[in-house]
Amino acid sequence: MRNLYVLGVYLAYLGMGMTAPFIFGLGYIWVDTFLPQLVAPGILGAVPVAMIMGVAAIGGYALFDRRFPPRITLTAVLSLTLAVWVTLTTTWAAAPSVAWVKWDWAFKTILFSVFIPYLFRTRVQIEALILTFIGAALLHMLPVGAKAVLGGGRYGMDVGLLGHNVGLSESSGLATVSIMFIPLFLYLRTHSILIPRWKLRGPFLLGMIMISVATAVGTVARTAMVGFVVMGAMVWMRSRHKVLLGTVMAGCAALVLYVASGAWTERMSTIETYRQENSAYTRILMWRWTLDYAAQHPLGGGFYVHSTSRIEDDMDGDGKVEVQVGRAAHSSYFELLGEQGWPGLFLFLLIACRCLWVYQWVVRRTRGNPDLLWCKELAAALQCGLLTVMACGAFIGVSMQPMFWYLFALSTCMGEYVRRVQAPAVSPLGRALPVSGGRLAPPLARPGYPRLR
Q1: Which of 133, 155, 215, 245 gives 141 a disulfide partner, CB atoms 3.0 to 4.6 angstroms apart?
Q2: Does any domain span residue 82?
Q3: What is d(CA 10, CA 15) in angstroms, rounded to the nearest whole number?
Q4: Which residues are 439's β-sheet partners?
Q5: SS3 helix, strand, coil % of the chain, rounded to 5?
Q6: Following DSSP, what letter does each residue of 224-241 receive, concatenated?
Q7: Per-residue pLDDT of the chain (453 residues; tens, 9 = 90+)
Q8: Are 180 and 404 a contacting pair, CB within 8 Å?
Q9: Are both 359 and 220 inside the same structural domain?
Q10: Are residues 28 and 138 in the same domain?
Q11: Smallest Cα–Cα separation from 76: which of 337, 354, 336, 339?
């Protein structure tokens, strides 16, 4: 039954995409996040589901939906430059056999992020993208959240939908995405136009926040603590009721500590005793190895270069050295430094900083405009989510995962939408009608700038 249900959803995306090409893009995001070929291997395991949906999205846009494309932005140029660079580094990869495997999906992730702003240009389309991403991830979150509520689970235990360490079944990555969704749920509670305005919409979305918190706690990943601190600080700083919100946050934190399992509190306590905790100390040794490698290979060693690593661990200080080979970097930034060298790390950080600036630009540009209040609130929520992912990314290797690149793409979607709707309209006599008084210009046609909503 599960195989048939997943197949039905996949075919539904393909069918509805015939009527609106951007739905093919939603289907690709669902496939990229949910991984139906692994959830239902009996039917879709041998089918190139991502390739089919990706080709459909590109073909649908090229044939039926090429109107009013966004500008070629700095984010797109930097992303394409990074796509070229990761291809070059793969040609001299230290571990070529596995490097090309990662290049295959990482290259596609970067390219599709550049293509996303061409598909998602209106408010409905942008919100549909966010809801699709949340909905696909939620199916991975629910088993972990339920396990946490029931008081079970421990670090490294497979309780996700896939049952093995891939995609959002990886505990730290799932915790990061779960926390990233919290400001988005707060936005949807007030501004959603796709979720029906019924009496239980508010309680339903508050329940989604509780599921996000339970999932992050249920992963028993220390990355969750970093995410909670950054996300909480960002939400508190943007709040107009700081005393009330601070009190609520403190109460929620106390409640989580009270009901959390002993495995979670024990795991969090190792943050202070990293020297005695094998995983944390090994991570520091790997960062040191990466710095030494980058000093000798400043242009990087290609994907999976850390599979060639060799570190000596004398954690107990008793002279008994344990040699470990092929450990992961456990940091997006050290992962990039080792694999893509200083140029790759610089490009990635430049993209991230540019996207944070675009979100802030949207917030400033729409402040005081009631017609674009939703843009201001959504940009603030996405900026908070990106900062959370960047902070958590310091401790997990997710630099090429969709969670980063969807947030990068959404910054362009938001920036281009605001630029378009605030562009002056043109009167029938050809005279410009500028925006004034904090209100949008009359929705008259301007060549190349339609009033898409």
Answers
A1: 215
A2: yes
A3: 9
A4: 436
A5: 70, 5, 30
A6: HHHHHHHHHHHHHHH-S-
A7: 778 888 999 999 999 998 888 999 999 999 999 888 888 887 888 888 999 999 999 999 988 887 778 888 999 999 999 999 999 999 999 999 899 999 999 999 999 999 999 999 999 999 999 999 999 999 888 888 777 766 655 555 555 666 666 778 788 889 899 999 999 999 999 999 999 888 888 899 999 998 998 888 888 788 888 888 888 888 888 777 777 777 777 777 676 665 555 555 555 555 554 444 456 678 888 899 999 999 999 999 999 999 888 887 765 555 666 777 888 888 999 999 999 999 999 999 999 999 999 999 999 999 989 999 999 999 999 999 999 999 999 988 899 999 999 999 999 999 999 999 987 654 444 455 444 334 444 443 333 434 445
A8: no
A9: yes
A10: no
A11: 354
Residues in the chain: 453
Q: How many domains is the chain partitioned into structurally?
A: 2
> Who's near 320: CB < 8 A, 6+ residues apart?
314
Query: What one-letter code names the amino acid at 315?
Result: M
Same domain, 223 and 359: yes
Helix (H) or strand (E) holding 313: strand 310-313
Give the 3-state secondary structure of residue 86.
helix
Q: Which two tokens stand for residue 378?
A: 């959504």
Residue type for 166, please?
V
Q: Are 251 and 107 within one domain?
A: yes
* SS3 track for 217-286: HHCCCHHHHHHHHHHHHHHHHHCCCHHHHHHHHHHHHHHHHHHCCHHHHHHHHCCCCHHHCHHHHHHHHH
Task: Answer whether residue 316 is part of any domain.
Answer: no
Looking up tokens 């339920």 gives 146
- Tell me how crowded residue 135 is: count the other CB atoms within 10 A of its CB: 14
Please state the φ and ψ torsions of residue 312, each to the nearest 5 degrees. -110, 125
Q: CA 35, CA 161: separation in Å to the nearest integer?
A: 10
